[in-house]
Every structure is written in structure tokens, then in C-alpha cells.
Design goal:
Blueprint lengths: L1 H26 L11 H4 L2 H21 L4 E2 L5 E7 L8 E11 L6 E12 L2 E8 L1
Antiparallel strand pairs: 1-3, 2-3, 3-4, 4-5
Helix pairs in contact: 1-3
Organism: Viridibacillus arenosi FSL R5-213
InterPro entries: DUF3888
Pfam families: DUF3888 (PF13027)
């Protein structure tokens, strides 16, 4: 049962990554103008879905390295999604996400932590952590 859940999560992640990469390719064709975007339009739903799917691994790493720090998904930023092996139906990605961390609700930010994830159909792993 648990393996089925992991498989369905991974399939969802692959679909989300496919939409992200195709959206980036389509959005870069012929748009030279800068548009103002409202906060609701800044990140499409699949952006937030990707952050949610990566969250368990991010939480493990941040809690292990910095036990007193917290972060909020609304403040996380996907910096890069890169396909490692080219071609159709190749599901091997790196995803770089910046998390702004803090200690306690009223304290100043501790600073960003950037995590690079390796995402395949076998799962999500952490490839690199940067302060």
C-alpha cells in the first residue's frame, strides 16, 4: 500500500515537472515585455504542488542541519528546474529551491538555504545544500 502511495506521488511529481518545463518553454517564446503580476497570479497551482511534493525532503534536511529553524512554503522560491537527460519520456530532473528560514515567529530571518533535489521516478533525494 505504501509503495502504491509513493508511486502515485512520484507520478504526480513527474507530471508537474513536465507541465513546468513545457510552461517555461512556451512562456519564453516571443514575449519581450515585462508584465506586472498580482500575488495570486505570481505562481500557478502546479508551482505550489511541486513545493508541497518536495516539502517532506526539505523539512528533513533543514531540521537535521538546523534544528531550530523553520520556513514557510509561501515564501519558498523555485530557482531552477533542469532535465538531466534529454528527450521525451526521460524523467530525471534537478530542482533548486530557496527556503527563507527563521527561528521563532517574531525573530528576524536566519537567511536562505538553497536545496538542490534530484527527482526521478524512483523518488526524491537531496543532492546539495547551500547556505
Amino acid at each position: 500500500m505504501k509503495k502504491k502511495q509513493i508511486t502515485s506521488i512520484l507520478i504526480s511529481l513527474v507530471l508537474v515537472l513536465t507541465f513546468i518545463t513545457s510552461g517555461v518553454m512556451l512562456s519564453n517564446t516571443g514575449k519581450a515585455e515585462v508584465e506586472k503580476v498580482s500575488s495570486e497570479e505570481e505562481h500557478p497551482d502546479f508551482y505550489d504542488v511541486l513545493l508541497v511534493l518536495l516539502d517532506p525532503e526539505a523539512r528533513k534536511v533543514i531540521n537535521k542541519e538546523y534544528p531550530n529553524r523553520s520556513y514557510a512554503l509561501w515564501n519558498a522560491e523555485i530557482l531552477e528546474v533542469k532535465r538531466q537527460t534529454g528527450g521525451y519520456s526521460q524523467y530525471d530532473f534537478t530542482v533548486k529551491v530557496k527556503y527563507d528560514t527563521y527561528t521563532g515567529p517574531f525573530n528576524p530571518p536566519e537567511g536562505p538555504i538553497t536545496i538542490t533535489f534530484h527527482v526521478t521516478t524512483d523518488g526524491v533525494s537531496v543532492a546539495k545544500i547551500q547556505k
